[in-house]
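DM from R.C. (forwarded with permission)

"hey, sorry to bug you on a friday — could you get me a structure for this? deadline for the figure draft is monday and I only need the backbone to look sensible"
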Amino acid sequence: MISQDKAARLWLAASESLTYKGRERLIEQYGSAINAFNNLSSNEGNIIGAKAFDELISLKAKGLDYFNFELEKIKAKVVFLGDEDYPYMLKEILDPPDVLFYYGSLPSADYRAISIVGSRKDTRYGSRQAFSIARDLSLSGVIVVSGLAYGIDAAAHKGVVDCGGKTIAVLGSGIKNIYPKDHIPLAREIIKLGGAIISEYPLYSKPLAYHFPVRNRIVSGLSHGVLLIEAREKSGTLITVSHALNQGREVFALPGQVDAPGSLIPHSLLRDGARLATCADDIIEDMGWGNAKNKAENSREMEELNLTNEQGKIYHALCVDSLNFEELLEKTQLSASEANTQLVIMQMQGIIEALPGGMYRLNI
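My reply, with the result:
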């Protein structure tokens, strides 16, 4: 069970209309969320707005236990600003969400992350590059963050899922109302592979239009840098880039065809000083993270070997270090029988070798 004050913070987070500034005003007025819950008066309608006040009064009638019960009922997880496992990059921004609801696993304390964002009306070139760069970033141990939208977002997430890596999807709706619905299977794969689906919005919140510009600060805030792949004039993706600049994040842009509509914004950013990125190596080198070339070479080698999807997952898992059978199962999410079959085949092909103690390593 969480503390009374954290339950009260869930109460504030459950209001659709309470803004970040409105929450700050309440905390300043009462000193804590639990004090606000116990002493909320009608005067606060002037501070936070009548609609938010009415919502909080209605939610208050449910009692504090209700909010913890709702989390347990749908097996959702929650992390609060100030908790040890709250993403360290996100807590540095000016307006970090007080509460994050999520499924899956949050990144470790020393994670590295790059956001990949772009047009929903992607071209074949844009989606192919998003997929490839995301995959190669993941192979280098970098977490890819995006918004689960159609177009570039989905391509980036799929690139990571393809190699069994970790990616984070930041929603503009509640985590129990994934949008777009077509991407529910993708969301499940993200969770299964150790990534996360996260949102600051109430659990069942609808994908309202004004949610997306606000959530974009989380997309950039979770990351060390943002890569823009295709964006047309007046694209909402520019909001993420603006957040990134205000948060002191590196901004990268992928060049495109000079006469393509989706190249307009990336080329404009490049003229204004954004970093040029044509592959994952460019990003990793500019970020000073190193080891990019070896990882990218591993990826190209895997393609040349013409491995199956299952074999590719094993290959990727062994790129970093030798692993035992249980560790391979955890990283690849393959069944024991399937993993055992593929290990035998890959040993016969000379791709991997078995070591003493039940360990496996690449043999190429």
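R.C.: lifesaver. Residues 292-296 have pLDDT under 50 and may be disordered.
me: no worries. The first strand starts at residue 77 and ends at 80.
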